[in-house]
Amino acid sequence: MLAIEPAKKLSFTRCISDGDLVIVYERHDNMRAVKVSEGSVLQNRFGVFKHSDWIGKPFGTKVFSNKGGFIYLLAPTPELWTLVLSHRTQILYLSDISFVIMYLEIVPGCVVLESGTGSGSLTTSLARAVAPKGHVYTFDFHEQRAASAREDFEKTGLSSLITVGVRDIQGEGFPNEFASTVDSVFLDLPQPWLAIPSAGKMLKDDGVLCSFSPCIEQVQRVCETLRENFTDIRTFEILLRAYDVREAKLEGCQDDSSVSVVALPSKKRRQRSSEGSNAQETQGSSIAMARPCAEAKGHTGYLTFARLKCFS
Length: 312
Known about the structure:
Blueprint: E1 21-27, E2 30-35, E3 41-44, E4 47-50, E5 61-64, E6 70-74, H1 78-84, H2 94-103, E7 111-115, H3 121-130, E8 135-140, H4 143-155, E9 162-166, H5 169-172, E10 182-187, H6 196-202, E11 203-213, H7 216-226, E12 230-237, E13 243-249, E14 260-264, H8 267-274, E15 286-292, E16 302-308
Protein name: tRNA (adenine(58)-N(1))-methyltransferase
Pfam families: GCD14 (PF08704)
EC number: 2.1.1.220
């Protein structure tokens, strides 16, 4: 997933090897992670795909089944991993993750503390952000969940960048070994205000903390606690609105204020135009229709950021 070892450097030209993890793309809402194994096969509604046919091909390759169906073999980036990972807990998605990494000012070489690990969606993106010389220390109170996360990080090749610990951060706080050495802290806890005093001790001067909470009452309690030792306290709610864009016949378009349309030449006219023909079009015009997706995700939670006060 990351350029950790030169031999395993991920690029659009790196070829798939036996034992690699690939993301099998059937369509935008149907993907899965598959470990390549010589002699194994993948069966789906498009037919049977032999893993042996994948080995030696670059990531992004379109491969065909015995029935003529096809899939794409994609590299396991953090963005795609977030879409295919096993949900042991509710996860953060790309809109929140990108905002968190930006506002926590995470760059290569940073040391980051996270609690709790959960399904590891954010942890995977944090690891890429701090690579190649930074590190993410993530904690979860649930031992089996932490063990499953370790397995996932091994599978995705991130184990050298992530250390998973089992610890009740709300009750015990972060380990003292990290005191005044951490660049950023992320909290995803039921009662994050209990962990804020410990997080403040871990941060370097001017370090940044983020707390994720699904309820505004949690945010209010967090902000009250942050005011003692933190400044520049801000809370955001990320709302992502996706659009469905497709071509449709003009005569079939209904009067709908939620739909934006742009008239296009018909397919037949476009074909004739490309051939230099000036013949009259015989079919009705088509349109590019754009409307909000019916299943667009709304509120996931509130992100509260704060910067540690410098008392020196």
